[in-house]
Amino acid sequence: MAAPSIREDSLEATIGDRLREREETIATAESLTGGLVSSTLTDVPGSSDYFVRGFVTYAYDAKRQALSVAREVLDEHGAVSAPVAKQMAQGARDIADTTWSVSATGIAGPGGGTAEKPVGLVYIGVAYAGPWGTQTSFSMTARHVFDGDRPSIKQQTVTACLEALAEAIDTVKLDE
Q1: Which residues, 6 or more positions from 78, have their beta carbon under 8 angstroms from its beta carbon?
Q2: pLDDT-derived band at 9, boundaries 50, 70, 90
Q3: What's the pLDDT tens digit per position in 19-44?
Q4: Which CA distances in Å does 130 have to 20, 45, 66, 167, 171?
Q5: What domains sit in the chain, N to C, each tagged with a CATH number?
Q6: Residue 5's pLDDT is what?
């Protein structure tokens, strides 16, 4: 049985086309998705034109060591937080030396949730490296609470990462 082909109008293909046209690159930093964002981006034929690296940093120490997430931020906010998602995205972008990065940290369940941080809570980060001297680099985060079982929450997270990335790419206008 042949593997399903990627639709040309899929979000991951559209992102790939935009990155290729703009001669930009991307890295990912993932926790709860365990590499699914990277896998989805690299499902697109020719993704080696723009996909540089994926970091799967499930544990606190992995986030510190591989992405330079500050111990103080992890201690104060916990791994599932906007500040950690932001530092994950910034770390992936800077360490992989890419134009873009996207990160995801959250609680896929079925256990591990609390009243303050329920199962399905996800933070997504996106970071952009503008050209040196332009002061256009930025990073941002978004909070989501998804319903469903573990596989569903992970898939919704992948979709939200791709949507956030596509939206951010659209906000950066290149000089023509």
Answers
A1: 84, 117
A2: confident
A3: 999 999 999 999 999 999 999 999 99
A4: 16, 26, 22, 16, 12
A5: 11-171 (3.90.950.20)
A6: 59
For residue 118, whether the previous peptide bond is cis, meaning omega lies within 30 degrees of 0, is no
Whole-prediction pTM: 0.94
84 contact partners, CB below 8 Å, separation of at least 6? 63, 69, 73, 74, 77, 78, 105, 123
d(CA 33, CA 154): 5
The answer to whether the CB of 89 falls within 8 A of the CB of 127 is: yes
Q: How far is CA 102 from CA 92, 114, 140, 165, in A?
A: 8, 25, 10, 7
Is residue 153 within 8 Å of residue 32, measured between CB atoms? yes
Residue 168, amino acid: A
Distance CA 29, CA 66 (A): 9
